[in-house]
Amino acid sequence: MKRLTPIGLTLPLLLSTALAGGGTGRQEGMLDVNGAQIHFVSVGSGTPMLLLHGYPLSGELFARNRDALASAGYRVITIDHRGYGMSTAPADAPGDLQTYAKDALAVMDKLQVPKAIIGGMSMGGPITFEMYREAPERFLGMILIDTLANPAGIVEQNIWKGMAQKATMYGPQSLAPELLKQMLTGQTRMNRPGDARILTGIVSQASVAGDVAGAMVLANRPDSIPTLKTIKVPTLILEGLEDTVYPPEFSMKMQQNIAGSKLVIIPGAAHAAIFEKATAANKAIMEWGRSNSFR
User: Fold this and answer.
1) What is the Cα–Cα distance from 148 to 135, expressed in whole angstroms?
2) Does 3.40.50.1820 match the CATH number of domain 16-291?
3) Contact 67, 43 (CB under 8 A)
4) Strand ranges across the sheet with 74-79
5) Which among 38, 166, 191, 209 is least buried, having the fewest CB atoms inside 10 angstroms?
6) Which helix H or strand E contains 144, and what residues bound it?
7) Boundaries of every domain in the chain
8) Could you tell me the pTM of the whole model?
9) Cβ count within 10 A of residue 21
10) What digits encode the pLDDT tens for the residues 125-184?
11) From the CB of residue 170, how many other CB atoms can be counted at a distance below 10 Å?
């Protein structure tokens, strides 16, 4: 299957064998992880921060966050989950919740990152919770972005199954119109059409198998509410005020169940708040980091 180059992505890729260590520049490459080829970008040096994208996006969701957070003293690492962006997966292992979590932990191993602040947007949230259940010692902190801990109800389950069916019948690009009206506010879609074009390009990159696998992860995700009370690391919850996919009520519930967590609601932002209002999101992350002595 032809894979498109992400908008704004710098090529050529660096060889993975030359990627260990710090440095203040950009590192980019493909890593052989659990039978898949996982694309990553690492920017900056300092406290590691691994950011996990949602469905059906890629690490380029965080293109407006990497440099700003790196300038504040973080090493920001983003990955494309298998089947998304530039990452690929074997036909017999397109992805599931446990596999996405194991992939992310393996990337940390490959990049010699024993601990990191780990953040997940939307589908990245359940992956982050699964990583915490698997290896809580790998967390310096946690960032939960427009996500939730609840399992999917029957209506939501069928929405995601419908997404899988549409991707199968009409291709990954067909999901963009369905999702953009929820990722971006109406004001942004009207006044900043370039944002919609960027996200459309990212959505169109996914493979059909990746879209189906991710949809099933969202439809069948476990109840992570019991996990919330076990989280012992500093936790930031970021939420777009106009998010209609997982509205602020879900973030408020997570904040109530994670001891010492901080909730920041971003006005004028929908489900892709980290992208749509990147400046506000970056400020919230940096202020939270300073308050917890990460930087």
Assistant:
1) 20
2) yes
3) yes
4) 26-33, 36-43, 74-79, 47-52, 116-121, 139-145, 235-240, 262-266
5) 191
6) strand 139-145
7) 16-291
8) 0.92
9) 9
10) 999 999 999 999 999 999 999 999 999 999 999 999 999 999 999 999 999 999 999 999
11) 11
